[in-house]
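Team,

Forwarding the record for the chain on the shared tracking sheet. I've put the sequence and predicted structure together so nobody has to dig through attachments.
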Amino acid sequence: MRPQMEQIKRLGAFGTATIHEAAGQIGALPGYIKPISRNMKLSGIVFPLHCLSRSNINMHEAIYRAQPGDVLVASLDGMPDAGYWGDILTCAAQHRGLNGLVIDGCVRDADDIDKLGFPVFARGLNILGTGKERGGTIGSPISIGGIEICAGDAIFGDRDGLVVIPAARINEVIDASEKREAKEEDVRRRLKAGESSLEIYKFP
């Protein structure tokens, strides 16, 4: 099951915190995975991969197996402190029409990636090089921070964090996000009119 890009666009209009809450507080990836530039935002359809420690050959191959609109989401066997991704892979991914990268590890060439405007969410930056040892998986389910991530899931990222939504629930979460946003807008209106948050939420 693969969401439509129109569904991704509708849900991506909301912040990740809203999406996470509207979905029932599911799918939040670890907070240490952050955009490498503070204004980067990300939305798309998951294409998962798993890399061996200090090997990025699967990153190269995944770019050419993924579809336009996909976001590469990568877990690692270990050794997160290496530069698994850089400006060359970014150029290739942009040419293929991919929507971004999420990696439970580090990347490098941050200034060049920033200039290219390609959203990258990572543990951090590290110049340590990688090899091309074969292994791992491409396109199979992975897990990051205890969250199972499958091909075709939807993923959204901003400064607050990253959230993964199963493909089968996307319409439900769109509706719930719209209702939540409308409710919070009403709360903001009431606060500006002079009510307190204690009164609005009826806290004891």
